[in-house]
Sequence to fold (243 residues):
Amino acid sequence: MNSDKLKAFLDLAQSRRSVRDFKPDALPGEVIGQLLEAARWAPSGYNLQPVHFVVVTAPGQKAVLRRACMDQRQVSEAGAVVVFVGDRDVVKRHFDAVLAMDIEGGAVNEAYEKLLRKYVPLAFSTGPMGLGWLWKATLAPLMGCFTSVPGMPAVHRRYWLAKQVGLSAMNFMLAAHAAGLASCPMEGFDTRRVGRVLGLPGGMEAMLVVPVGYAVETERVKTRLPLASLVHEERWVDKNRKG
Ligand SMILES: Cc1cc2nc3c(=O)[nH]c(=O)nc-3n(C[C@H](O)[C@H](O)[C@H](O)COP(=O)(O)O)c2cc1C
Fold:
């Protein structure tokens, strides 16, 4: 185990802050590119990579975007804003291409390929006229009485996408902090309006807005619940039970 690297990583995770006060300085495009590299290398379910990044740096576009984000000032004040977008149609768009890459790279063997080809379309397809999710929504819980049934992205697509976006955005924000930059994850926005501002096509949904840039240094205290109140050994223990 490399305890120095672990300690350095813990320092990084503990010292990151959500920042709302930014200097107006622009970010070099190369730096944004490196942060997006970190975001791109996040894991995703079946390696489907359903996360796209819309980078907004033009002052006019940031001002319009701010209005769709409940007028939160950090959207127009940060040097750049990255909108993390989830692709609802990712299986149709590039399941075959990703699988081919993973096979060629040796990440997927023949048996796993067979399983993926069978399971992924079944789990994600919403069938003719998008009604296929109905039988999945009803049948899956029934099957669950007899066997373990995984969650069906066809039924809970936004939930599935939110996990993928969250992991990617965390990589992005930690990379930004490592580079001496600040960021703020944001869910306080109007999804439809943000989609219109960015010109997102059907099937693409804005899921997280992350302003990034140079912080105006302010003293901010960061708090977390004690770890012991959140950790459960082997099975759930009700930590709030009295006596
Ligand atoms: C999914 C998510 C959505 C958030 N949305 C907003 C937001 O819309 N506006 C905002 O100012 N902060 C937002 N935050 C930041 C949280 O308030 C912040 O992460 C939390 O208070 C903990 O502080 P820290 O990030 O500095 O540790 C959001 C955080 C997360 C994880």
In short: The chain has nine helices and four strands. The mean pLDDT is 92. Residues 17-18, 20, 72, 184-188, 222 surround flavin mononucleotide (CB under 6 Å). The longest strand covers residues 204-213.
